[in-house]
Amino acid sequence: MAAARPEPVPPDSQVLSLRRGGPTVQRIMLGTRLRRLRESLGISRERAASEIRASDAKLCRMELGRVGFKVRDVADLLTLYGVHETAVREELLNSVRQANQPGWWRAYGDAFPSWFEQHLGLEEAACLIRTYEVQFVPGLLQTPAYAEAVVRLGHSVTSEDAVERRVTLRMTRQALLSGPDVPRLWVVVDEAALRRPLGGREVMRDQLRHLIEAAGLPNVTVQVLPFHVGGHAAAGGPVTVLRFPVPDLPDIVYLEQLSSALYLDKPEDVDHYLAVMDRLTLVALSAADSVGFLEKVLAET
Q1: Rounded CA gap, 64 and 32, in Å?
Q2: Whole-prediction pTM value?
Q3: What fold does the segment set 18-99 form as a domain?
């Protein structure tokens, strides 16, 4: 019987189109391609791991894009998988080099916990960001003064320089909402976040004005979930779902906790949270009514 042949691996324009996401997305896309090559040949993960002198667990993390890659390891895997064409090998090995490049956020490495780095890369590459917030205005729509108040709330014993660094990082993240290839941001914000005074009256008034202005952007949708709705599907806390412009990268659910975060990509988990977000958008005020509600809260603040 003829040996199984690997699936063709043409130069991947999908990877090139996601360079905005930096190394995080590069790693995920490269890991996905390597996994598909291995599975198309019926090669076990244990055998592939042995080929690069690694554990099964490490190869699993590589295929999920959760660790960095070594050029030699990927070259050895490509040989095992029968990928010998020079142009294809070089394109994949070049992806390794891109995946190992630091993202822009590395310059702010002291301003965020290690578990947040993956979110920064995913956020940068997403074409749709859906988020529900109950306690704060979402970070992508915060003003500098409001962001400072939030940072001080969570880091009350830190230095002034550290506070400034965290605020600057948050403002830098917001650049993805302007310029070419902007993602769509769809926000559902609980009335509690609008009523909770942070930073003083003028800070809250400026923040509300900013939300109203942001709601007028063509790529931003803001919905308010008012108190009178009562209980709702996302009672457990804030939720963010990120969608990407290529089919090889599944939707990812981001759940932030006090000292860690969960990243969910299993279809059953993603489907559950997508259903939660859909129900929230149905019970929340419409985008037009939400602007009127924000103006009302502004007048009362």
Answers
A1: 7
A2: 0.81
A3: 434 Repressor (Amino-terminal Domain) (1.10.260)
